[in-house]
Amino acid sequence: MKVLIVYGTKHGSAEKCSKLLKDKLQGNVVAVNIKKDNVPDITLFDNIIVGGSIYMGQIQKEIKDFCLKNLSVLKDKKVGLFICCMNDKEVHTLFNNSFPEELLTCATAKEYFGGEFIFNNMNFFERFIVKKVAKIDKDTSTLSEENINKFAQLINKA
């Protein structure tokens, strides 16, 4: 089985989750950062996983564009979708804002992997906003290896 993970990341959390996920998946797994790497021909893969981090309520534009551009191919594949963010209260809304409805409907797996605030990865303005809005002033992680494991199991079964 050939598996492609396409992810977008701003501060590294989605990349970290993609690497953890890659190690738990069966078959030949290729992970690509949509902002840095060339995305291979998706028709050559059995399973395609798409995910990214939520920043200011939105997933990366490149992830949205990838999903829309490849929607017809993705609908015929076994697809998994994930998001990384610190807002666990609005996960359903964030998924709906991040991925096309047709893709959400046919996805084999959908999961929230948690998020991180890593202050060294942020600029001054981002640190200021996190401190004021989230009331957090030190590195914080809510990444869930349990959720990544559940997701991997669903993909491996597919």
From TrEMBL:
SUPFAM superfamilies: Flavoproteins (SSF52218). Residues 4-141 form the Flavodoxin domain. It comes from the Bacteria. GO terms for molecular function: FMN binding; menaquinone-dependent protoporphyrinogen oxidase activity. Pfam families: Flavodoxin_5. One of its GO terms (biological process) is heme biosynthetic process. This is Flavodoxin. It comes from Clostridium polyendosporum.
